[in-house]
Amino acid sequence: MRKVLTIARHEYWVNVRRPDFIIFTSLVPLLGIVALVVSLFFGRQAGGAIVRMFDSGSDVTAVVDQSGGFTPILPRFEEEFVPYGDETEARTALENEEVQRVVVVPDTYLREGEVTVFTEGSRFSGSGTSGLRAFFVAHLVEEIGDETLRARLIDPYDAQVEYVGEQGQASGGAAGQILSFIVPFFFGILLAVTVFVSAGYLVRSVAEEKSSRVIEIVLSSVTPQQLLAGKVIGLGALGLTQILVWIASAAGLGGGLAVLAGILLPLFTRVEVFGLALVYYILGFGVYAVLIGAIGTLGSSFQESQQITGIFIFIAAVPMMLTGVIMTNPDAMVVRVLSWFPLTAPTTMMLRLPLAEAPWTDVAGSIVLLLVTIPVVVWLGAKVFRLGMLMYGKRPGVLEIVRLLRDA
């Protein structure tokens, strides 16, 4: 164990000082600072433009009421709607930019329901339409004597949506549904970034030691299992360091802490989801890191090793590509199959857990399979690692690898 920790410490400190690691780790905080500066300088101007474009409350509408049913204008609409005696006068006001739109209500309105709207460019959109609708509805129901009925006709319902899981528990309204969308991505991306960043440095470390023949000296002092374990632990810590720096940077920038709290709060209130996500994260990291580290040694160069490990990275990313299916139907057959396949189970289950009550058979089965897979992967990985580190000049084929493993 002492040799494993020594190797892990060496790998960590060598790679944490690499210029490319420092640049890549600093890139996210720098982009956040740039975004913050841009928002401070241009946010007010952009916000004003958006308000002017979509907020009908900042516009004035001229009303030419030929039907007689919309004048006098109700007090709550007097700031946004101004009555005009005829269409010509109203259109002149529009040309002089005294109003932003003109609505002509003909005397046939009650029978046909048609009105004519004159507006500046494309400003009659979004909340402008909803504001005009509210104006018409409020005036049409004004003659109804029952105030409660009148209020209900203006605002028919205020839906409080509760999304119910398979076992009947309510999972919250719209805010809860949005967080359920964010939470799985947070942990899925966390796993992907940590593993793939660590794997990249692992493959590079192996390729450099292999090309310089240093590995032959190292293997005279430690076993392949110890060397592989030390590299996985050290570079895993490197990836976690990168993630922690990014999280701390996000928390340090204005509003970042609130966003992170909003993402993590639902997990802490559902302890089983947080605990299982952590379990899948650790098990997934163990499987991916060992596999990528071992298979990466088979390449004769760093570029070739990257191409080989890219296959496993693609397989691990398959659940992210099927996010739409997982979110709309977390218990679909294809999702359950991915949950039982060791290379896709961690990411798939991280996406499933916050969205629905996954069957306990899927949860227990996938965890057991991962627990069984890890020692098998470590055993085979150590053999492949040893063979790959001592092979030079060409990449072995699949049949040759099988033969060498059988004879090892």
Automatic annotation (TrEMBL):
Residues 21-382 form the ABC-2 type transporter transmembrane domain. It comes from the Bacteria. One of its GO terms (molecular function) is ABC-type transporter activity. Keywords: Cell membrane, Membrane, Transmembrane, Transmembrane helix. The keyword Transmembrane helix applies. The chain crosses the membrane at residues 21-43, 178-203, 243-268, 274-296, 308-327, 363-385. It is found in: Cell membrane. It is a multi-pass membrane protein. GO terms for cellular component: plasma membrane. InterPro entries: ABC-2_transporter_component, ABC2_TM. Its main location: membrane. Pfam families: ABC2_membrane_3. PANTHER family: MEMBRANE COMPONENT OF ABC TRANSPORTER YHHJ-RELATED, MULTIDRUG ABC TRANSPORTER PERMEASE YBHS-RELATED. This is ABC transporter permease. It comes from Caldilineaceae bacterium SB0661_bin_32.
